[in-house]
Amino acid sequence: MNTRKTVSLFLYLPETKEMILSRRSESRTRPGLLQATAHGELETAEDDQTALARELKEETTLDIKTVRNLKFIKTVEAGQRQPEKCRYYLAEIDQSVFAGLKPTEEVKEFVKVTAKDLENIAPFSSAEMKGIDLFNNNVMYDDELGALKEIFPT
């Protein structure tokens, strides 16, 4: 089975020390699940920077030029249905840029979380076993939640 190559971009508000997550819309697989601000698969002949810019525009309506201090964090090998190699990135925005975020067909809403809030986000594996409603609870894929906990600026 081929390994999917994906990128995830977490946007961070340094003034309030909050990370911005997106909640998947009803049109997506596992609607209601929290994920990085923008996430998606690399298309043919696409590099990470191009994919990040495209996914950010598609999922948040923001232009990649509105973020600052974009940096690569790590690569995680995971995948729910097929092997996946995801490269995680972190970038900063300010409140005025956050105010411009708009829900899209792929994203129902944006959720701000602090480092303290991370303890209240359930890993998908345990939430699925317990039948937890993804829209009324904060749930993330286990690997993405692990990456978020590791990269959250202090």
Provide key terms for this protein.
Nucleoside Triphosphate Pyrophosphohydrolase; globular; 23% helix; two-stranded parallel ribbon; seven-stranded mixed β-sheet; 154 residues; alpha+beta
Explain what this protein looks like in three dimensions.
Helix content is 23%, strand content 35%. It is an alpha+beta fold. The chain has a single domain (4-151), classed as Nucleoside Triphosphate Pyrophosphohydrolase (Alpha-Beta Complex). The strands form two sheets. Strands 1, 2, 3, 4, 5, 6 and 7 form a seven-stranded mixed β-sheet that branches. A hairpin with a 5-residue loop joins β5 (68-78) and β6. It is globular.
What secondary-structure arrangement, pairings included, does this model have?
Layout: E1 4-13, E2 18-24, E3 34-35, E4 38-41, H1 48-60, E5 68-78, E6 84-92, H2 95-99, E7 107-113, E8 122-123, H3 124-130, E9 139-140, H4 142-151
Percentage of residues assigned to helices: 10-25%
Per CATH, the architecture is: Alpha-Beta Complex
How is the main sheet built?
7 strands, mixed
What's the CATH class label?
Alpha Beta
CATH topology: Nucleoside Triphosphate Pyrophosphohydrolase
Low-confidence stretches: none
Q: What would CATH call the homologous superfamily? A: Nucleoside Triphosphate Pyrophosphohydrolase
- Tertiary shape: globular
Radius of gyration: 14 Å
Q: Helix segment count?
A: 4
Query: Which secondary-structure class do the elements indicate?
Result: alpha+beta
What do the pLDDT scores average to? 90
Order of helices and strands: EEEEHEEHEEHEH
Number of domains: 1
Through-space gap between termini? 38 Å
Strand elements, count = 9
Q: Please indicate the percent range of residues in DSSP E strands (runs of 2 or more).
A: 35-45%
